[in-house]
Amino acid sequence: MLSHAEENYLKAMFHLTTMAESSNETGTNALASYLDVTPATVNDMLKKLKEKDLVSYEKYRKITLTQKGKDYAVDIVRRHRLWETFLYEKLDFSWDEVHEVAEQLEHIKSKKLIEQLEKFLDYPVTDPHGDPIPNAKGKIKYQKRKTLAEIPIGSICKLVAVKDTSASFLQYAMKIGLGLSSTIEILNRHEFDGSIEIKVNKSRSTVSLKFAENLFVV
């Protein structure tokens, strides 16, 4: 049985290696920054996870999840995203409210509960932020997508997911009229700072490069 902290570390490693795309490893400093803890704290936890054969790790080297660790991480992500979907679809939570509550609910380990939750939701494939939900066998179906920052001027695209799920980011997105499936037209890009002029539902906005890099579109 894993502790909540151990589960959080495995989930964080899964997210970091998934975001890296070209690599299945991450570093101690990246993990510390992601979890907002010190590298020393990370090293202590990694020793525990290594003893349980959940990570492959040597001090000052990159960290990878073992197959056992990846299986655990995917299961945690599955629980989290199903709970987010339940909160959003059935309890009228907004997409900026679900993450924090799902962080608590994801640690409930009843397999039957998660199976029944998935059935009750009619087997959803994505969560309220557009992220794929692993199925019962741990398979994840990823969609080919680009960030808004990569889309050329004059193009029209559709928002399918967000990289940043923080409440402040999602609230800002809603403020300028964005939600999943929103149609976005790229009007202009400013060379000076990379900011982008967009049109959403006939409303024009200028967003930062950082903001654009956190929106996934097709």
Outline the structure in words:
This protein is of the alpha+beta class. Helices cover 43% and strands 17% of the residues. It has eight helices and nine strands. The chain has helices at residues 4-20, 28-35, 39-51, 67-90, 98-105, 111-120, 167-175, 209-212; strands at 25-26, 55-56, 63-65, 146-147, 156-162, 183-189, 196-200, 203-207, 215-217. The protein has a six-stranded antiparallel beta sheet with strand order 4-9-5-6-7-8. It has a three-stranded antiparallel beta sheet with strand order 1-3-2. Strand 6 and strand 7 form a beta hairpin. Helix 2 (28-35) packs across helix 3 (39-51) and helix 4 (67-90) crosses helix 5 (98-105). The longest helix has 24 residues, at 67-90. The radius of gyration is 19 Å and the shape is globular. The model has no long low-confidence stretch (mean pLDDT 93).
Strand content: 15-25%
Major pleated sheet? 6 strands, antiparallel
Number of strands: 9
Based on secondary structure, the structural category is alpha+beta
Which labels suit this protein?
8 helices; single chain; 6-stranded antiparallel sheet; alpha+beta; 9 strands; 218 residues; 3-stranded antiparallel sheet
Element layout with pairings:
Elements: H1 4-20, E1 25-26, H2 28-35, H3 39-51, E2 55-56, E3 63-65, H4 67-90, H5 98-105, H6 111-120, E4 146-147, E5 156-162, H7 167-175, E6 183-189, E7 196-200, E8 203-207, H8 209-212, E9 215-217
Antiparallel strand pairs: 1-3, 2-3, 4-9, 5-6, 5-9, 6-7, 7-8
Helix pairs in contact: 1-2, 1-4, 2-3, 4-5
